[in-house]
Amino acid sequence: MKALITGASSGIGMEMAKYLASKNIDLILVARREDRLKALQQELKVNVKIISLDISDVNNDYKLYEMTKNENIDILINNAGFGLFGEFKDTSLDRELEMIDLNIKAVHVLTKLYLNDFIKKDSGYILNVASSAGFLAGPKLSTYYATKNYVLKLSEAIYEELKMSKSNVHISSLCPGPVETEFNDVAHGSFVTKGVSPKYVAKCAIDGMFKKKMVIIPTMKMKLAIFFQRFISTSALLKYIYYYQSAKIDKTK
Question: How does DSSP classify residue 128?
């Protein structure tokens, strides 16, 4: 088997690469930071191709597909993404549009292109990295939450389409809570509660994908939180999230 992973130079993406390599699955690793990709390539004991590319540029999404469409890929993992803390009126519009390009457009384009190839051969897995944020609206992290809602709902809809057509292609969404990655540094904030390790999340994600789960939530704490939120009014949830996010924001940025 062969897997393509975006955002593979750190965090969950890097740990997914390691876990898949432990299962003797060859890899195509995509990220902007070539030096980190090369270091990871040297560490893994399978065939690894690295591609240094900024997929927030939609033209590079098509370029990536053209570069890899004949590689006989079995697994697509759309992991690349980032967030940005702050009130919507204050955050950088340019940065938010870049986030939309990466978190939404890249996921949409790559899912569409590789999905059609998978359908033609009637096999393959797609794992889209969403977030527990995908179930909510997120004051002070508004654009990020909105992008992850998009990823989750798009993936769920595709899941049902594949199921109804009796396809052997499967799509899953990963929806973790806080994870100890570089997310905080990029987003200019910090988690109030301690995040789980990216290694643990990566294993849960890959195992869940192979079990053909629609939504993968790595921890029981987050599963319970998502379950019980349905019993809380939207206004109460929004107020809670507003104050929860306020405690995260890096005042030094």
Answer: E
- Residues labelled catalytic: 144
Residue-wise pLDDT tens digits, 132-153: 988 898 899 999 999 999 999 9
Rg (CA), the chain: 18
Neighbours of 29 (CB within 10 A): 26
Pairing of strands 2-6, 75-78: parallel
In this structure, which amino acid lies at residue 178? P
Query: Which two structure tokens, joined as six digits, stand for 169?
Result: 């292609």
Of 170, 219, 200, the residue nearest 19 (C-alpha):
200
Q: Is 217:132 a contact under the CB 8 Å cutoff?
A: yes
Pairing mode, if any, of strands 26-31 and 2-6? parallel
Residue-wise DSSP of 12-32: HHHHHHHHHHHTT-EEEEEES
Show the tokens assigned to 229. Answer: 């939120």
- The answer to whether 80 and 31 have CB atoms below 8 angstroms apart is yes
Question: What is the pTM (predicted TM-score) of this model?
Answer: 0.88
Confidence of residue 229 (pLDDT cuts 50, 70, 90): confident
Q: Residue 192 has what DSSP assignment?
A: S
Check if the beta carbon of residue 172 is closer than 8 Å to that of residue 215: yes
Burial class (CB in 10 A: 0-12, 13-18, 19+), 227: exposed
- Average predicted confidence (pLDDT) for the chain: 90
Amino acid 78: pLDDT: 98
How many CB atoms are closer than 10 A to CB 71? 12
- Counting other chains too, the contacts that 157-162 makes at CB distance below 8 Å and 24 or more residues apart are 158/111, 158/115, 158/126, 159/214
